[in-house]
Amino acid sequence: MLGSCTTMGIGGWLLMIGLWAGFLAVVVWGVSRLFPSTPDGPTAVLAERFAAGEIDTDTYRSARAELTRSGRN
């Protein structure tokens, strides 16, 4: 007796592949939303202010060192 995999046909296989691809895409999207790659927090704000020219190099370096020392990265 042949298994059900051999009688499914090409349409069934394509549907199954499409469903698995969609499921994996949703999982990857969900994980990427849970763990974003962009830095958040005080160091990101500090870097944005430095890039915008709101603070000078010395202020940036001293604030960055203070944040690193205090563990607020």
Ordered list of secondary-structure elements with their pairings:
Blueprint: H1 9-34, H2 42-51, H3 57-70
Helix pairs in contact: 2-3
Explain the overall architecture:
With 73 residues, this protein is mainly alpha-helical. It has a domain at 39-73. 68% of the residues lie in helices and 0% in strands. It is built from 3 helices and no strands. The chain is rod-shaped, with a radius of gyration of 25 Å. The termini are far apart.
CA radius of gyration: 25 Å
Molecular shape: rod-shaped
What is the tally of beta strands? 0
SS element count, helices = 3
Q: On the 0-100 scale, what is the average pLDDT? A: 86
Q: Distance between termini?
A: 63 Å
Characterize the main sheet: none
Uncertain spans: none
Helix content: 55-70%
Order of helices and strands: HHH
Structural class: mainly alpha
| Proportion of residues in β-strands | under 5%
Characteristics:
single chain, 73 residues, mainly alpha, 68% helix, rod-shaped
Short recap of the structure:
With 73 residues, the chain is an all-alpha fold.
